[in-house]
Write a structure and sequence with these properties.
Distance between the termini: 94 Å
Shape: elongated
Structural class: mainly alpha
Strand order of the largest sheet: 1-2
Oligomer: single chain
CATH architecture of the largest domain: Orthogonal Bundle
Order of helices and strands: EEHHHH
Number of strands: 2
CATH superfamily of the largest domain: Winged helix-like DNA-binding domain superfamily/Winged helix DNA-binding domain
CATH topology of the largest domain: Arc Repressor Mutant, subunit A
């Protein structure tokens, strides 16, 4: 039996915004880990994400299990950033909605004065 010359690892790419993507796909590391934590097998995860190869899914799971502390920190940062963006978006939406409501009410008042 021949021994392998190199151990293959999964390619992880960090984007400009700090998101880690799997292989040459747009699938985020946290997406694969999320399904793994829910109890999905590597095969099931590969079916959910057809752009991922089964070997890549196994690679992500292996990376997660061998570097759990580092990955957990990354996941916490991603979640905190996601929560901050969501809060900012909701706040902006609420402000814009209130401004729009005020403009509509002002128009209705002007129309009522004309009648």
């Amino acid at each position: 039996m021949e021994t392998p010359e190199a151990i293959q690892t999964v390619q992880l790419t960090k984007t400009a915004d700090g998101t880690i993507r799997v292989g040459k796909t747009r699938i985020a590391l946290e997406s694969v880990i999320h399904h793994f934590r829910l109890g999905a097998t590597a095969e099931e995860i590969a079916q959910k994400f057809p752009s991922l190869k089964l070997a890549e899914v196994y690679g992500v799971i292996s990376f997660f299990l061998s570097s759990r502390e580092e990955v957990e920190k990354y996941l916490q940062r991603q979640e905190a950033e996601s929560n901050a963006v969501q809060a900012e978006t909701e706040s902006k939406f609420q402000t814009e909605t209130e401004e729009l409501r005020e403009r509509i009410l002002a128009r209705w008042e002007k129309r009522a004065e004309l009648v």
